[in-house]
């Protein structure tokens, strides 16, 4: 991960300090990541990549083509998490986020999300520009947005300004499935 970050930073003619300033993270954090002495949280990595103007999926899968189709089968959905979570190791439990089509082309990201029991997006709350909403299809999920929280069950839904700190956790003993949308795309 460190080599990829350095490669992108150098290609954009940015110093570590300049990237840190534009990302809102400490300068030392960029250096630690680039030398593989530290792995950032998902939230920190999003901030850093925001300073480069790229998404998480572009960072981890830069050359993969996205089908320019209208209809998609389950196998056509783009897995945005398998490499991300095994590399960062910050979230707890297994979760899967699969994207429908080309989110950037439509300025809308639609995700099919699965959370195993105990899965958690991490203690570092997520924050990004835009709006986010979804519907719980099965199971239940705890959603924390700012200082509010709720346990959402099948049929329950949510919609919020995603610049508010938020976190998803499956605190039940069975899998939770959520279909969500975010505009603009953030992964």
CATH level 1 name of the largest domain: Mainly Beta
Major beta sheet summary: 6 strands, antiparallel
> Into how many domains do the coordinates divide?
2
Please state the overall shape, judged from the principal axes of the Cα atoms: globular
- The share of residues in helices is 25-40%
State the helix count: 7
Within CATH, the superfamily of the largest domain carries the name Jelly Rolls
**Beta strands, count:** 9
Q: How would you describe the overall organization of this protein?
A:
Keywords: DNA-binding. InterPro entries: Cro/C1-type_HTH, Cupin_2, Lambda_DNA-bd_dom_sf, RmlC-like_jellyroll, RmlC_Cupin_sf, TransReg_Diox_bact_type. Pfam families: Cupin_2, HTH_3. The longest helix is centred in the first third of the chain and has 11 residues, at 42-52. The chain has 187 residues and is of the alpha+beta class. The model has no long low-confidence stretch (mean pLDDT 85). The protein is built from 7 helices and 9 strands. The protein folds into 2 domains: 2-54, lambda repressor-like DNA-binding domains (434 Repressor (Amino-terminal Domain), Orthogonal Bundle); 74-183, Jelly Rolls, CATH 2.60.120.
